[in-house]
């Protein structure tokens, strides 16, 4: 049974745990603050009933999962919960299609924690799915801060208060950061704290929310909201965005609090992915671009321009990748020039030439250092990471450990809007210089909780699927390099 994990972290943690066979579930965590109770964390767990072993029950069938959640601070267990989660009654086992949701609330003091979760099918034979993750809960007194962003499936006026209720609404969680074509609305709830202390009681301030491209950093013009609000102990914000015309790609939902001088004083971001094949980069829009007197006019050879366009893949949006595959394979020089100019105008409207020259220098660097006998440097995993994020702050190289395949661990202090992110690359040989990305804790990248076993597979069989780490091997430094980059 193979298990995969993807993770997004800000004040919201969004993760999915899935298996090719057996239990499939999704979990997200969101932190809040209450004037009465202080900080608290909510967990939203969605379980796919079709992946549970069903047993007979009166009137149909049910499935059950054992859930264990632990919050640790050092060796101390700050909170712990173990419970059985039962599916709704199922009457048609051939057409289950049910994802049922469980919500829990934990009162936790501000601070750093290690969160551990274990989910096991009580009637199945597969081992439990487990995961642990560091997180921080903090709402500084006297400062403006925001809750986590709770993504919503739906909301309604609350008839009476319950665990789903906030600010007079019952909020049904959307336990994913993925919006397929069938979901055309993003609904969300966020709370703002500390505005009275920062701005004064009854003072006005601005709230700005917008969607921006993850790769480009450009705001989506149609998905921007700005409103005025008045300071209070808790300022709730219930918002909805129409994603119907948002192209496929990676995005950030940004929430900002600004003072009366329009200065940003607090903010947060949530990563999400959109799949929307009906919206594509328009050929007509590209064709109207005039490349005369631009830097692209100087690139007059089709083969040269085609090679340049291929180097753009690591930093292209999904919509740009689709357009290039569909229209540029046999395009004329004019269309290729127009596409190339449009690409760099999207990233630097004032000086697209400078943006291209800076990127071309990076392409030359990765070609020099990461090329293989059959791949250009920009086609390799290390090259693509370098071009997307720039040079890492540190690289721990270990190409000759006795028990491990050659590996490298790249560490970024700051990665776009993330901090302290790592990439683990591994090569199955010492010849080709081709290192595969096998794990990263960065948003939107491959995440493999068993990555140590992949590196140590030269001497470790890796057949124990519950095993996360590896045995200590003579000369092994893998954990040291990962936990203490240098």
What does this protein look like?
There is one protein chain. This protein is an alpha+beta fold. The chain is globular. Helices cover 17% and strands 41% of the residues. The chain contains nine helices and 26 strands. The strands form six sheets. Strands 12, 13, 14, 15, 17 and 20 form a six-stranded antiparallel sheet that branches. Strands 1-2-3-4-9 form a five-stranded antiparallel sheet, with no helix packed on it. Strands 16-22-21-18-19 form a five-stranded mixed sheet, with no helix packed on it.
Question: Helix/strand-derived class?
Answer: alpha+beta
CA-based shape? globular
Rg, Å, rounded: 25 Å
CATH superfamily of the largest domain: Immunoglobulins
Topology:
Elements: E1 3-9, E2 12-19, E3 25-34, E4 38-48, E5 55-57, E6 60-62, E7 64-73, E8 76-86, E9 99-107, E10 111-121, E11 129-137, E12 145-146, E13 150-157, E14 165-166, E15 169-173, E16 178-179, E17 185-193, H1 195-199, E18 204-213, E19 219-230, E20 234-242, E21 249-258, E22 264-274, H2 283-287, H3 302-310, H4 318-327, H5 333-347, H6 352-370, H7 381-389, E23 394-398, E24 407-415, E25 418-426, E26 436-440, H8 451-455, H9 478-483
Helix pairs in contact: 3-5, 5-6, 6-7
How would you summarize this macromolecular structure in one to three sentences?
The protein has 9 helices and 26 strands. The chain is α+β, with helices and mostly antiparallel strands and 486 residues long.
